[in-house]
Amino acid sequence: MPLKFLVDTHSNKCIKDKGCEAICKNYNNLPEGVYRIRVITINEGKPGQLNIPMPCLHCNNPPCMKVCPTKAIYKREDGIVLVNKDICIGCGYCAFACPFGAPQFEKGGAFGSKGKMDKCTFCVEPYNQKDEKGNRIEREPIPRCAMVCATECLLAGEQSEISRKLRERVGEYLATGRLESIFLNY
Amino acid sequence: MSFSFRLSRRNFMKLSAATVAVAAGLIKYRKQIFKKAEAQQIQEEAEKEDVKLVKTICTFCAVGCGILAKVKNGQFIGIEPWVNHPINGGKLCCKGASINHTVTSPKRLKYPLIKRNGKWEKISWEEALDIIAKKMMEVRRKYGPDSIFFAGSAKVSNEMAYLQRKFMAFWGSNNIDHQARICHSTTVAGLGNTWGYGAMTNNFNDIQNAKSIFFLSNPAEAHPVSFRYIYEAKKRGAVLICADPRFSRTAAVSDLHLQFRSGTDIPLIWGICHEIIKNGWYDEEFIKQRTYGFEKAKEIIMQYPPEVVEDITGVPAEKIRKAAYLLAHNRPGTLQYAMGATQHEVGTHNIRSFAILQLLLGNAAKPGGGVNAFRGHDNVQGATDMCVLSHSLPSYYGLSEKAWKHWCKVWNVDYEWLKGRFAEGMMTEKGFTMSRFAVGAVAGTDAFPETKNMKIKQPAPIKIIFWWGHSTPSIGDTKLVKKAFETVDLLVVVDPFVETAAVLADRPDGIILLPAATELEGSGSVTNSGRQVQWRNKVIDPLYDSKEDMWILLSLVKALDKYDPGIYEKFTVNFGNKPPEQITPEEVLDKEITVGSRAIGMIGQKSWRLKRQQEYDYTFSSKDCKAYGGPCDGEYWGLPWPCWNEQHPGTPILYRNDIPVWEGGHDFRVKWGTTHDGESLLSGVNGQDQVKIDGVLWLYNLETDYKEVLDKNMVPSGRGRARFYAWNLRDPVPVHREPVWTVRPDLAKKYPIYDDSDYGEFHYRVQIKAKSWQDAFINANGNKIFPLIYTTGRQVEHQGGGAETRANKILAELQPNMYVEINPKDANDRGIRDGDTVVVVSPRGLEYGAEVAHIYVKARVTHAVPPGQVFMPFHWGGVFQGKSYINRYPVVDNESLAPYVYGECANTANPVGWDQVTQMQNTKAGVCEVIRADKFNVEGFMAKVKNLAKALR
Questions:
Q1: Burial category of B639 from C-beta neighbours within 10 Å (exposed 0-12, middle 13-18, buried 19 and up)
Q2: Nearest chain B Cα to A28, which residue?
């Protein structure tokens, strides 16, 4: 089963404490302007307000990968979509193709962005992919954003595990007779 | 021996890590094992990269989250989630998740600096301390010991906070105060007067047992990690009700939102209580057995039916009925609040009304219930317990002769000697507070037209201000505070960063900046909001030339010793008179704090126990904070006080009388005698008076370990009753009182603020006006000039005055903006568009003859605030009434020490009004007008407020 992110927008709603954004920047040494994950808000200030953390969704059939002219984007066996910055030319095609705004570029340059594309790596790679000796860094796939998420609205792991967790949550609502409250306004 | 043990242990760790890693491959994401695999893999990864993981405690809000600091070659390179931590379990908000960038920020104050001839100059520690000591003695000789004001800190460890209080005691003045005054002082007064202790009754973990949660603050932004337990409760069926003037992020995830007008907490609560009483939903048995004065409270409460409340608060009566129904039918329910409730003229009574609601419902003193004061700083509970406050000695002993004698015994000094250090009669006199200390400096001067008429209750004004780990933006009336900084002879700012105070004052000299290490560069114990004491480990050595707070304070005493011989010896007699660098926080905690702090039962929290808990963190359950098995078996995490002795497990839930005291049982305190008006004040269950041991009242007895008392299941502080009716307060039962400056003059007639005389001639050494200013404001039609309600609050990315967070590059990037939130209706009526620069004008300053307070901010047009209300975050500094002070920040080694982001202090425009009990400032219910910046000029506006200005003076 592939590794995935999923955001619970029904029961454990995001409170936008931005722990995910901060730990991601901190752990992966991201430069200014690069957000591998970002929390967006819809209906701000009104009933129905919803905050949604938006990481890369590591699509099963990633559009960014399909359009990459240099084949710099690839998908690992465990489902993680990565970019090889050695061959990325920073054209930005991926940013066009991605419906979720996942591809990121460092701030600066004539068009307000510069350098190679960077994106969520499920925490396996920091921003600078290589260590002092020039070897590509590879870490365990433990996304820190999901680990620090105070509300556990951001779930990460194998797809089967995530759906089990969601079912558990809904089950608790069923058991307490409040299932409708997650679909209807109280 | 110990070396070889460590070696073998590490080998063992490696071995076990390997086995788990294999297992983790197979069953990686199963429940529980998933967690274990995460923690294990983080540990492994750290070992692979030769990184040391140091367990430490976050230094931002008071949830007390654990963090693993990654240290490589003595460098603080990052953080990891502390998965086994019983409170946060690895969960963090953006502040905790980027804390290493605060510590390693290039904006840190690197060396001691002194301002001379308008320039910042480097200076050595010895010289700086000598200049300060010399000046202190000069002021002492010329004006007396009370001419120093010491702003202490809630950001330091318990040990340091305690030493700050002790320092001012030895100096001979009570002019010491800290953040708690403007944070939860009204909690201490409100809850203390209701049931004995003024602290959060339960803890964060316990929220998961609640069936209903009543929010009176915005924990989603102020205490995000508490949502770990709030959602756990919700999952189990809890109803969430949020009362907030704004549609906050907490309101957005709640089931019911009560959008009330700022400053009307009491009527809102009374409306709910009215419905509960009317429908007979109250807990009769609980009220009969464990409380006092229900009938008297009922009389008042019944004057607030939902329809009346609707008129006062703006909340529809139907919603109030619904809230009452939900609270009554989902028990036990917990209630939480923070600054939105405390920072009012009636703060003490706001908090009392919350407690009374919980007493009515029988929600007090049980798991899943309680009144939970969410505190602001990581150690504000601890610093409050250590009473860095102008009206008490550590552990809330007060300033009576008996209290002084108690602490003199702990300090091992002669009471008469200490008395001689004070000016005549000032030893038992409450000192200035954080909210009004500025008056102590400017009184009698020509700073503003009216300041020469200001009177203070001490022989001479303040001449030296110590600003030790306190922020300026969080204090109201920035204009007067600025003037105070300019008036005094010397301003000493001790902080890891260049705090706003250092640049706010227009003065070419007379400021000394001392670089304190951040709290992660030192060790010590910290108490979180739930009274849980945790040991914070030192992550790295202090960077640059910064020093640990304790070293700075002890070195200052040492420097004073040159001019005031013998003071260092007396100050450190219990620590063997060792030099400053050799005195450890462990000694301070074990030899003084836990010896003398008996009134709160901070006795069993010895450093070795705290460290042992930290080592065996995994034996504690996050369900009830209790250790099952292992060396800490039966102990509660953090040994929450009262922890009566070294065998006691701590009291996680206050006043719970259904379990033995040895297992954390407790009861309402007997504090106001055993009878009143012919009724017993002892509990109807197993009532008992305060305990005397060998003829000495329990809190003054330094010899006992209370074992015999506990064996009989008696509580040393007695088993009493909670008070609906507190006869010693101005309002024995809370009643609504309109804020001094109110937008509803019609209501002020029926619900007036306190008379000026209610504050006495002097209130914490200054004079306070209330009713006369309310009348003046109303008579001059102030509400027509200032029709909008002013309120302030937090941004999740920043903390307090923002010195630490605005200098953290990640947090500065996540939230670079100071703004005013305004409803589209109000904005459109004023021709304001989203993003426009606007001026928020308030009458503040008119009362002492200054111009109106006016601050320049960006407009954020949003439905989150209702029409008629504006909201501003208060973390910002560096700009004052449109003038940027950024170029005043020192430049050290070619790096400007100005924070990455800066803005206006919202509190420049806060209203007048102070709590009648504690002198809490009001920052939540004021008045203002918002004007587009291009349409505003001060002179024009002053002409408009001429009458009001005259009336207020």
A1: buried
A2: B78
Number of Cβ atoms within 10 Å of the Cβ of B307: 11
Cβ-Cβ pairs closer than 8 A, A with B, add up to: 141
The residue segments making up the domain with residue A93 are 3-182
Q: Is B33 part of any domain?
A: yes
- Domains held by chain B: number: 3
pLDDT score of B23: 36
Q: Are residues B255 and B357 in the same domain?
A: yes
Distance from C-alpha of B401 to C-alpha of B946, rounded to nearest angstrom: 49
Give which of B235, B254, B804 to mutate to test A binding, by max A Cβ within 10 Å: B235
d(CA B287, CA B556) in angstroms, rounded, equals 53
Backbone angles phi, psi at A67, to 5 degrees: -90, -10
Of the candidates B62, B73, B70, B74, the one whose C-alpha atom is nearest the C-alpha of residue B100 is: B70
Q: Which of B547, B472, B555, B559 shows the shortest CA–CA distance to B516?
A: B547
**DSSP conformation letters of B543-574:** PTT-B-HHHHHHHHHHHHHTTSTTHHHHHTGG
Residue of A nearest to B221 (CA): A17
Q: Identify the pLDDT of residue B22.
A: 36
What is the number of structural domains in chain A?
1
- Same domain, yes or no: B875 and B850: yes
CA distances in angstroms from B11 to A140, A157, B8, B16, B119, listed in the order given: 22, 30, 5, 9, 57
pLDDT in tens, B247-282: 999 999 999 999 999 999 999 999 999 999 999 999
Residue B838, strand partner residues = B857, B932
d(CA B675, CA B729): 17
Q: 3-class SS at B378?
A: coil
Instruction: Determine, yes or no, domain membership for B551.
Output: no
Residue B625 inside a domain? The answer is no
Alpha-carbon gap: B522 to the closest alpha carbon of chain A (Å): 22
pLDDT digits (tens, 9 = 90+) for B503-522: 999 999 999 999 999 999 99
B224 and A181: CB-CB below 8 Å?
no
State the residue range of the domain holding B20: 2-103
- Give the HSE-up count for residue B268: Cα atoms under 13 Å, Cβ half-sphere: 27
| Chain length of chain B | 953
Cα–Cα distance measured from residue B552 to residue B126, given in angstroms and rounded to the nearest whole number:
11
Chain B residues in contact with A186 by the CB 8 A cut-off are 255-256
Average pLDDT over residues A116-127: 94
Q: B238 in helix, strand or coil?
A: coil
Distance CA B936, CA B810 (A): 35
Quote the pLDDT of residue A183: 61
**Model confidence band, residue A107 (pLDDT cutoffs 50, 70, 90):** confident
**pLDDT for position A114:** 79
DSSP B591: I
pLDDT tens by residue, B420-451: 999 999 999 999 999 999 999 999 999 999 99
- The rounded distance, in Å, linking the Cα atoms of A57 and A159 is 11
* Cα gap B666→B676, rounded to integer Å: 22
Residue B17's pLDDT band, with cuts at 50, 70 and 90, is very low
B707 lies in the same domain as B778: no
Point out which residues pair with B239 in neighbouring strands: B212
- Measure the CA–CA gap between B105 and B46, rounded to whole angstroms: 23
CA separation for the pair B71, B30 (Å, rounded): 31
State which H helix or E strand residue B71 sits in: strand B66-72
What is the CATH number for A127?
Answer: 3.30.70.20
Q: For residue B72, which amino acid is it?
A: K
- Please tell me which of the candidates B45, B236, B865 has its beta carbon nearest to residue A172: B236
Whether pTM exceeds 0.80: yes
CATH number of the domain where residue B357 is located = 3.40.228.10
Domain contains B555: no
Q: What secondary structure letter does DSSP report for B518?
A: P
Omega before residue B332 within 30° of 0, cis? yes
